[in-house]
Design a protein that fits this description.
The protein is of the alpha/beta class and 296 residues long. The protein is 25% helix and 33% strand. It has an 8-stranded mixed sheet, sandwiched between helices. It has a 5-stranded mixed sheet with strand order 2-3-4-5-6, with no helix packed on it. Strands 7-8 form a two-stranded antiparallel sheet.
């Protein structure tokens, strides 16, 4: 399992009875987690000192309950390339805060790849699809890449821009696009544009800006095939993340291998996870598949 274990401003403190107790900077949140099916004693005092609690409804969805929690605050993350990122957090619909901290395991990996390539004189172009609030975009830009950031939600792209400004990347070469990811890739094929690396973090289910329906089991493999057409002849890396239970690491690995091949690189896949500080356990948080070029 690839661990996001280098955080200072974030921590999973404990987890029990379908929920996890987290520290986001100076604030404690309790949020539901479907992986937490055990029922252990909640001995940590943080459970009673929480600043926010997302209550899931039996009818679907849920709502936040707040206890002296600001509407917005920031946390930081230090990349291994000696760059620091700043993220704006604000609790919003369906338990989210605007950041998936487990993705730091991937930020560390590809930011080092990019920085090494840039140090050798290579110009690196990265495409980030389903880019959300820009964690991967900022990590790639901080490492020296030019990034095209694509998400169907205008609000998420605006949020990502705020994170870029706070991270000192206001003038970094980032293109911010509100678009349907599949249609954007199809247009890039027609335009003949190419990228050295592609990152995708597709949802299990979603809709594009014009109501386009996305179901990951039906749509992700055709999208990987499309993306292979806009990779350069000598790609640096390819990354796909999945939070869908049915898409295990081996499935991600096989999809990447069958499309990209392994002649000029290696394909690996694993669960990603977050350490639980109170008991030494690791909380699984989905899976990632990676292609990495060799000899670059």
């Amino acid at each position: 399992m690839w661990l996001a274990d280098q955080w200072n401003d974030y921590e999973v403190i404990d987890c029990s009875k379908g929920e996890k107790l987290e520290r986001w900077g100076d604030y404690l949140l309790v949020r539901p987690d479907p992986q937490v099916i055990w029922n252990t004693p909640r001995k940590n005092p943080g459970w009673k000192k929480k600043n926010g609690h997302y209550h899931r409804s039996s009818k679907g969805g849920g709502e936040w309950e707040f206890f002296q929690l600001p509407k917005e605050w920031t946390i930081q993350y230090s990349l291994p390339i000696n760059k620091k990122l700043t993220f704006h957090l604000k609790p919003f619909s369906f338990k989210h805060t605007g950041l998936f901290p487990e993705q730091a395991a991937n930020w560390n990996w590809f930011s080092q790849l990019i920085a090494d390539a840039v140090s050798k004189g290579r110009q690196v172009k990265v495409l980030n699809l389903f880019a959300y609030t820009g964690g991967a975009t900022l990590a790639a830009a901080a490492a020296g890449a030019s990034v095209t950031h694509v998400d169907a939600s205008k609000g998420m792209v605006t949020w990502a821009k705020e994170n870029a400004i706070s991270s000192g990347l206001k003038d970094a070469p980032i293109r911010w696009l509100v678009d349907d990811c599949v249609k954007f890739v199809e247009r890039e094929i027609r335009r003949g544009n190419h990228y050295d690396a592609i990152i995708m973090d597709p949802p299990s289910y979603g809709r594009g800006p014009k109501g386009e329906i996305w179901k990951i089991e039906e749509s992700v493999y055709p999208l990987i095939q499309l993306c292979s057409q806009i990779l350069t002849d000598n790609p640096l890396f390819f990354l796909i993340n999945s939070y869908t239970t049915g898409l295990q690491p081996a499935v991600l690995s096989y999809m990447i291998s069958t499309v990209l091949g392994t002649a000029n690189g290696t394909v690996t896949a694993s669960e990603i996870g977050l350490p639980v500080s109170s008991n030494g356990l690791v909380l699984p948080c989905g899976a990632s598949g990676r292609y990495e070029a060799t000899g670059i």
